[in-house]
Write a structure and sequence with these properties.
- It is built from 2 helices and 5 strands; from the N terminus they run E-H-E-E-H-E-E.
- With 94 residues, it is of the alpha+beta class.
- It has a single domain (5-82), classed as Alpha-Beta Plaits (2-Layer Sandwich).
- Strands 4-1-3-2-5 form a 5-stranded mixed β-sheet.
Length: 94
């Protein structure tokens, strides 16, 4: 089993601000013991950077698609990356 840390960088588009998305993402990430951050962007998107084992990140992405009740995600742009900086926890940064 490969336990090397991976990183996924995602941008959520849709009705994703003002609906509890950051708290939802943070809650899932913390339960899965992922590190990184979630934040709102000025263009209406939500940015997520999550680090952990690939299998756990895949589970995170699947759960993420459900979103909080009032949200609607119509597109997720994501890329898998090799972490350059490692985070110690998962935070809501803005």
């Amino acid at each position: 089993m490969n336990t090397e840390k991976k990183q996924v960088h995602a941008f959520l588009k849709g009705k994703v601000q003002g609906v509890g998305m950051r708290a939802y993402v943070s809650s899932i990430a913390r339960k899965l013991k992922l590190c990184g951050f979630v934040r709102n962007l000025d263009d209406g998107k939500v940015e997520i950077l999550a680090q952990g084992e690939e299998e756990i990140l895949e589970k995170f992405l699947q759960t993420l698609k459900e979103g909080p009740y009032a949200s609607y995600i119509w597109q997720i742009d994501l890329s898998w990356e090799t972490p350059i900086r490692f985070y110690d926890s998962f935070e809501i940064t803005s």
